[in-house]
Design goal:
The protein has 105 residues and is mainly alpha-helical. Helices cover 52% and strands 10% of the residues.
Length: 105
């Protein structure tokens, strides 16, 4: 299933799961991720996605500079709506994601 079809069919939860993992990695100061490891983590979390769809979705996320089958390079830039004087934006984004996850439990 292609990324556009995933989102079109209302399954944006896959994208949310990917974004959550990417934001957590950025919050920890990680700049590179192994694509296969991310795919395995998503599958272990109950997300059903293939490698090509994962790469397509990764390339739609602002926090991702580039993604291919080997690795994901995270940007160190702040999101477009971030306050440039505030250097803890990534930590705040990660906290929001963790809070959302806690509410689901």
């Amino acid at each position: 299933m292609r990324a556009a079809e995933l989102l079109h069919e209302g399954q944006s939860y896959v994208l949310n799961g990917i974004e959550e993992l990417v934001v957590r990695a950025k919050a920890r100061g990680i700049t590179k991720l192994n694509t296969s490891a991310l795919l395995a983590k998503l599958e272990a979390g109950g997300y059903f996605i293939d490698m090509s769809s994962l790469i397509e979705l990764l390339n739609t996320i602002d926090a991702v500079g580039s993604a291919n089958e080997k690795e994901i390079i995270l940007t160190n830039a702040l999101p477009p709506d971030a306050d440039e004087e505030n250097d803890d934006t990534v930590s705040k984004m990660a906290s929001k994601q963790l809070t959302k996850k806690d509410r689901k439990l």
